[in-house]
Design a protein that fits this description.
3-stranded mixed beta sheet; two-stranded antiparallel ribbon; 37% helix; alpha+beta
Length: 109
């Protein structure tokens, strides 16, 4: 038994309608994340809105012959990178899940 898509249903699934629906869902998700971040910033009892990730600063120094040398930064070997506890970036900071994932990435010189 096969079910055929009628002309009326097929005309409702246009690419522009699908794009608009996905855009509305994405904007709604971002607004909900922003509202939850702002609520935690105003009422600390809901949980922390901001955090930080501790990392070692590793410098990536290019050398001759496409070789790379790695050194720990002697001026500031460690740092705490501020982040937001949310899905998307807010208040000029990246999300903590993103910062913690890239905490061990070397800094290109």
């Amino acid at each position: 038994m096969s079910i055929a898509i009628t002309g009326q249903v097929a005309s409702q699934l246009t690419p522009s309608r699908v794009f608009r629906t996905l855009l509305i869902v994405a904007v709604g998700f971002w607004l909900a994340d922003l509202a939850w971040y702002q609520a935690r910033a105003w009422w600390p009892g809901l949980g922390q809105a901001n955090g930080s990730v501790h990392r070692m600063r590793l410098l990536e120094i290019p050398g001759k012959g496409n070789k790379v040398e790695y050194q720990i930064d002697s001026l500031q070997p460690e740092e705490d990178v501020p982040c937001t506890r949310s899905v998307f970036p807010h208040a000029g900071s990246r999300p903590c899940w993103y910062v913690s994932r890239h905490a061990h990435d070397p800094i290109p010189m």
